[in-house]
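Homework help board

Subject: predicted structure for assignment chain

Our instructor gave us this sequence and asked us to write out the predicted structure in token form, then describe one feature. I got the tokens but I'm not sure how to describe them. Can anyone check?
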Amino acid sequence: MLLPIPYDRRRAVEYARRWALSRNPLFIDFTGLGGNCTSFVSQCLLAGCGVMNYTETFGWYYISPTDRAPAWSGVDELYRFLTAAPDFARVNRGYGPYATDAKVARRIDVGDVIQLANSDGEFYHTLIISDFREDDVLVCAHTDDVLDRPLSEYNYASLRVLHIEGAMLYFDDEKRFEELINAVALPTRCE
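My token output:
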């Protein structure tokens, strides 16, 4: 059974600010390989939820540069993973973080994700909201490394905002029930 767990926005933003201007050596730097922006935001999301989805191809995980899901570092792939697009009413039903389009959620907060598009409607850049200042949104991002940069300084044709609702964690109730009834262990959340 999948159980919802909260998304820790404070930890996601703390991670974003800590690594905005440098690289965490646990992850490959994709800057010369198409861009590091979505991988960086995925790292922030991981800091905020602590759960990866190891489903091959359609999951959201990073083990190594050659063993990762497309959603970890791809702009559109991350969007599809988080929202289960094109059905916006249905969010990711597997492990890991899930989001709603901010047009549907009708709210944004720190730790939410912004994706920028060009005039052809192609989304090309992923950022994480780190704060708000007056009438502007502050973001952290990689590729062009920024720490608390105003969104108004970006040049883009359109954007989409993903409100992170939480994460899902797998709870194997049959296994946990057997462990409980046989006095092996108390039920715990596990992946």
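Reply (TA_rk): Your tokens look well-formed. For the description, you could write something like this. The longest strand covers residues 158-170. That's the kind of observation they're looking for.
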